[in-house]
Structure formats: C-alpha cells, structure tokens
C-alpha cells in the first residue's frame, strides 16, 4: 500500500511528459504550416488532444512555446551535425520536409515578419547557424560568408516552401543539393561538395572561369 502513491506519482509524471511532448509536436506542425501569428493556442491544444490550460501550465505562454519549438529542432541539429555537413543537412531537411530539426527552419520561414515578440528567437537561431557556417572559411570575411550562406539557405527555403515557385518547388532534392552545395564551395572553402557537387563546380569553372580566361587571352592578343 505504501508503494501505490509512488507508482501513481510516476504515472502522473509520465502522462504529463507525454502531454507536453504532444503539445510540442502539435506546435511544431502548426507553426510550420501557418507561421507564429496564425497558429492559435486553441488549435495547438486541439491537435495535441489537450486543453489550453495545460499548454499554459507547461510553457507559460505562446511565445515561450514558440521559443522551445525553435530550440528543440534547431539546437538539436546544431549539436548533432558536423559543421561541414550543416548546410546540406539543413537544406535537405527543408527540401524534403518533416522531422523536428528540419521543421524548425520551416517555422522560421513561415514566421518571418511576424510580431516583435518572436524576433529574438528567430534572430538567435539564425546567428547560431551563421556562426557555425563561418567556421568553414579561413578568410577574414568568414563572418560575412556565414551570413551569405545562411541567406542563401533561407532564400531557397522561402521560394520552395512559402512561395512555391516552380520549378524549384517540385525539384528533386538531390538535384538541388548537388547544384547548390557545389556552387557554395567558392564561398565556404571547408564545405565538402561530394561527387555531384564537384562535377557542378568543375563544370561551372570550365564554362565560366575557363571562358573568361580565354577571353582575357584573346583580348590581350587581338592579332
């Protein structure tokens, strides 16, 4: 009889933890689908099969819930992904969709331009991604290069996920990654390109850089 309250307390904690995780999952889905402003607390609670009172008990506010959704996916991706793989992993996540780490960038894209109360969460996550990407360059402009790489990543996501611009919206993820990662090697020298990326980079060099060099030689020897 003395052990029954302990079992009951343990069951209550497990149930509370399960409800909290369901709320996080539901919030991640709705923020990615609608953005911060249009995803209501009521809809999040309904999708999680919980009530709004529990949402506020576990997270305190919609803003705090948003911050935890962003941290849950983005921070895990930053912790678990080597720096030289971060860009491609994040890009593939946005192209394919799904997964907590992947959806954190979708949440970011859907919520850009929203209220000031979520600006810090978006800015903070973006800065952390850019800082990691900057480590792939030994140049004095490494910080700028990291920002440019992040801008390209988010721009691709914006055009595919939010704007749904064709042909990008339905393009094969492998094809997009091959083209983008191959071209990005000139900005971040420490970025591995893979076979497809190297072919793209070499092809670009032959077509653009090589042509420019030949043009320069012709210009210097007009005769």
What does this structure look like?
It contains ten helices and no strands. 75% of the residues lie in helices and 0% in strands. 30% of the residues are buried.
Which key features would you list for this structure?
223 residues, 0% strand, mainly alpha
**Whole-number average pLDDT?**
77
Q: Tell how many strands the DSSP assignment holds.
A: 0
What structural class do helix, strand and pairing data support?
Answer: mainly alpha
| Helix-strand string | HHHHHHHHHH
How large is the radius of gyration? 23 Å
Strand content: under 5%
Terminal CA distance:
103 Å
Please state the oligomeric state of the protein chains shown. Answer: single chain
Chain-wise SSE layout:
Layout: H1 4-34, H2 41-48, H3 52-59, H4 62-80, H5 83-96, H6 100-111, H7 119-134, H8 142-162, H9 173-184, H10 194-220
Helix pairs in contact: 1-2, 1-4, 1-6, 4-6, 4-7, 5-6, 5-8, 5-9, 6-8, 7-8, 9-10
């Amino acid at each position: 009889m003395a052990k029954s309250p302990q079992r009951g307390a343990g069951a209550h904690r497990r149930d509370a933890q399960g409800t909290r995780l369901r709320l996080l999952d539901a919030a991640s889905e709705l923020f990615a689908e609608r953005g911060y402003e249009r995803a209501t607390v009521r809809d999040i609670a309904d999708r999680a099969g919980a009530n709004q009172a529990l949402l506020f008990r576990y997270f305190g506010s919609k803003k705090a819930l948003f911050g935890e959704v962003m941290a849950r996916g983005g921070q895990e991706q930053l912790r678990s992904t080597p720096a030289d793989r971060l860009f491609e992993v994040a890009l593939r996540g946005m192209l394919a969709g799904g997964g907590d780490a992947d959806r954190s960038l979708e949440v970011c894209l859907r919520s850009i331009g929203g209220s000031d109360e979520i600006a810090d969460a978006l800015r903070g996550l973006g800065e952390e991604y850019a800082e990691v990407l900057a480590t792939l360059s030994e140049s004095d402009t490494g910080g700028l290069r990291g920002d440019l790489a992040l801008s390209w990543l988010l721009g691709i996501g914006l055009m595919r996920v939010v704007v749904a611009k064709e042909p990008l919206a339905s393009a094969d993820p492998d094809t997009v990654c091959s083209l983008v990662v191959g071209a990005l090697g000139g900005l971040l020298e420490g970025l591995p390109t893979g076979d497809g990326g190297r072919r793209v980079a070499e092809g670009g060099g032959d077509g653009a850089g090589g042509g420019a060099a030949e043009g320069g030689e012709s210009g210097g020897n007009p005769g």
